[in-house]
Design brief:
By secondary structure, this protein is an alpha/beta fold. The protein contains 17 helices and 16 strands. It folds into two domains: 232 residues, 3-Layer(aba) Sandwich (Aldehyde Dehydrogenase, Chain A, domain 1); 194 residues, 3-Layer(aba) Sandwich (Aldehyde Dehydrogenase, Chain A, domain 2), CATH 3.40.309. It is globular, with a radius of gyration of 26 Å.
Length: 486
Amino acid sequence: MVATTLLDDSSDTNAILDMRRVFQAQQESFVADGDPDLKTRLSRIERLIALVIKNADRFAEATHADYGSRDPLLGKALDTVSLVDGLKADRSMVAKFMRGEIRHSAFPLGLLGGRSSVHYEPLGVIGNISPWNFPVNLSFSMLGAAFGAGNRVMIKPSDQTILTSEALADAIPEYFDETELAAFAGGMELAIEFPKLPFDHLMFTGSPALARIICAEAAKNLTPVTLELGGKSPVIIGRSADIKEAARRIMWGKSLNGGQVCLSPDYGFLPRGSEAEFIEAASAVVKEMFPAMLDNDQYINFVNERHYQRVKGYLADAKEKGARIIEVNSANETFTDKSRKMPVTFVLDVHDEMTITREEIFGPVFLIRSYDEFDEAIQYINSRPKPLALYYFGSNKSEWHKVLDRTSSGGAVQNDVIVHFMQHDLPFGGVGNSGTGRYHGIEGFKRFSNPRGVFEQSTLAAKAIRLALNFPMKDLHRKIVDSKIR
């Protein structure tokens, strides 16, 4: 196997040349080998599973070092468990997927032996630009569908978690030739050049602002893209909800990875008058989960200073404009900028002139809005960009169906948050500002395939076609045409 070159900021120039070379090698190998058989596709997924399992501890330690405070055990739980489960689910579907689909043939061609079908052929070479918040999972999770569909893949992992990115790139050559899979862990110059390659498909996970740049580069090659962009995912708590249990599940999701999750609940609607009850219950849950935060590696800090200061700025702006800020500081600790940690924080009395109501938070901060009528929450959500996820708590079926029928989001969950990502047979992705395209399950295989329409003609069907449409056109043809458009 050919070793993948390890890259860093100082070697971006050489890395770009190497990246272009590997891209060309993957293209040539794909054309030379043709559509891979079932054995080859399964082998690639199985080797990936083996790679992840063998390197799980190494990857978790690297991410811990990148963050400075991210318990390796928690890291494995966040990055590895769902990843391996998803890859195994993808593996189980490959054979069924490769059979394609039989489709209806128009009358009378189907009756006379014509046969219509869809053959899902691989696209070729796929690029994946993955983020820093789940640097292992989101680098590798799309590979089950991409490999299952018969493609080759190149990964550009985040330069914000460079040690993890280097560990990924270093681990791949033991299991894969570079014509099958390669990763490039470099700096900004490499990140700029990666989407300029004429991939057959490009996947990007990150912010809408960066997505616009990625799409502009991809458009120059007419490269199709899949975008998973996050957004401000809302929670609606109905009057029928168990407030304490809702608070428990929401705070679990809000605290996961320090709130640095694209599916993290960003803001919530509460029936007016229940705010204090919710905050009391949520605070108790936080104190139970994290008796102390500063020296607790399971309470994760911001990945870097820039993101920490960004959220601090949002809070300062909100407070200046009249918001009430409530912190849950279980052990009365003194939080300083050095730790890059922030206590779980509730923001009340918010209004749309505050920056924090417009920008995705990506931190342990939860905005609380109040409603008198349920439709107020629906109307507000519909006035905002479409979110990646929407969460409803309650047992009122009418409200739940109203959420599904009158709003739009990438995914929706009743009585929990985030867990739909773990359902590997469900399509995952965004809509509008929160992304485009789906992966996971059969939708992932189809996303990374070309659905080639195939028609197999029969002698009788061919004669029928010529009878109905041939030259020169005569009175018989006129009668056939007129009979079809009555």
